[in-house]
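Changelog entry: the Aspartate-semialdehyde dehydrogenase record was regenerated in this release. Current contents:
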Amino acid sequence: MKVAVVGATGMVGNVMLQVLAERNFPITELLLVASERSVGKQLAYKGKDYTIIGLQDAVNAKPDIALFSAGGATSELWAPKFAEVGCTVVDNSSAWRMDATKKLVVPEINGNVLTKEDKIIANPNCSTIQLVMALAPLHKKYTMKRVVISTYQSVSGTGVKAVQQLENEIQGIKGEMAYHYPISRNAIPQCDVFLENGYTKEEMKLVKEPKKILGDDSFSVTATAVRIPTAGGHSEAVNVQFENDFDLADVRKLLSETPGVIVQDNLDTNTYPMPIYAHNKDEVFVGRIRRDESQPNTLNMWIVADNLRKGAATNTIQIGEYLIENGLV
Ligand SMILES: NC(=O)c1ccc[n+]([C@@H]2O[C@H](COP(=O)([O-])OP(=O)(O)OC[C@H]3O[C@@H](n4cnc5c(N)ncnc54)[C@H](OP(=O)(O)O)[C@@H]3O)[C@@H](O)[C@H]2O)c1
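Regenerated structure tokens:
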């Protein structure tokens, strides 16, 4: 496969290169693409140096697959140009996620919706991916009625600039701000911009994307997304009300049998998921599984994943692997 990584110099792009190498993705030719600012710079992949090229040069090279993580505006403008030359684009931005003509895919859940005709495929938002990985098997068995999510999201979810802001603040250096406020020793109840309904864009992604991925809009979702000063890894406190009652032991068994999900839930040993343990892992970790005693058929749980891995790079690459394994590219 001739593979282009668009946004190769970014937070997600960097992890993308790491995951491509780890999984031995079948690359015959690699094109590393970024903005004009980076064209000509060198980046290493599997010990070999590659020169960063611009978007037009990448289109001209007609890659088989392009893995995009260069922001929504770049995707909107350039993904169609890659698709036009026969390339299949897997896009990490929010540009195409809710477009009715594009698939929104977590391979373990709905990889089967993909066809050869899909030339632009959307990768869900990081906080959505870890959420649906845990919700999908439970929804199948108990049928969700309502989900309430509170997120505790790391600065790496905002990109390089935000990681630098946190580093600067810890070291007492004055620098560029990615957020309106200091993030060190703080919790900012705003992830992304506010919309007319008073929710942030991130919160509305959590409301809309799970329905599209699960192919079901019969359940309702509400969310509060908060940025906290963790370097990497998003956490979510999730309350789910089901149509049907459940047994807690069955819930734990079901989740622990779900590929890509690991249950970390032992109160005797203070075992529960945390960002420091999810770091650099591809799995989604679930713990603090308990009954909501305030109303029937309702579960509380705590979900953690590395937002740059399963939340972005790994899921994108898994989509690429699915396309190759199923002869769709
Ligand atoms: N961070 C996460 O957890 C996460 C999770 C899921 C999805 N995403 C999405 O992935 C995308 C990238 O996020 P990130 O965190 O990696 O951001 P980032 O660290 O700021 O990196 C942005 C990347 O995009 C490139 N880029 C920016 N403008 C460009 C342009 N006009 N043409 C070509 N390349 C351009 C940058 O190249 P230069 O270095 O040359 O500027 C850089 O490689 C965003 O759409 C984001 O929403 C991020």
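The first strand starts at residue 2 and ends at 6.
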